[in-house]
Amino acid sequence: YAPWCPACQQIELTWESFAKESEHLDITVGKVDVTQEPGLSGRFFVTTLPTIYHAKDGVFRRYRGSRTLEDLQGYVSERKWEAVEPVAGWKSPSSMMMHGMAGLFHLSGWIRQIHSYLTGTLGIHVWISYAVFVLATLLIGLILGL
């Protein structure tokens, strides 16, 4: 979820109720703020918000059902998750591919922080900051090419 997301705000009370009932269902319920954990959103390949996953024994399934408390509880208690196709091996959050994707999300956050530092703290013009990144990209490519 993200704090600014209207759909996430809409499901928030239902999700909190689901979390309170989780003990009766013998599950753990959590939520992750993608603005605070960009690597995790990359690892799970989150493209829409909110995104709900069911995980059991290292197998991940994306929940696409109704977002009512009854349907969320039924998905677990009636074992409806067994009928859902698991996330493909290469797209699984535990795969090497998604570890790499998480790294790219971390890198983009790091680049954004450097850009903010250059433009905000040091007062460098935005286009000069862009030029620094262009030159760094070319230099890194040249070094890797050699």
TrEMBL record:
InterPro entries: Thioredoxin-like_sf, Thioredoxin_domain, TMX_domain-containing
All copies of domain Thioredoxin, residue ranges: 1-77
A GO cellular component annotation in the UniProt record: endoplasmic reticulum membrane
Keyword match Membrane: yes
Keywords attached to this entry: Disulfide bond, Electron transport, Endoplasmic reticulum, Membrane, Redox-active center, Signal, Transmembrane, Transmembrane helix, Transport
Subcellular location(s) per record: Endoplasmic reticulum membrane
Source superkingdom: Eukaryota
GO molecular function annotation: disulfide oxidoreductase activity
Presence of the UniProt keyword RNA-binding in the record: no
Topology versus the membrane: Single-pass membrane protein
Membrane-spanning intervals of the chain: 124-144
Protein's UniProt name: TMX4 protein
Organism expressing this protein natively: Casuarius casuarius (Southern cassowary)
Name of the gene encoding the protein in the UniProt record: Tmx4
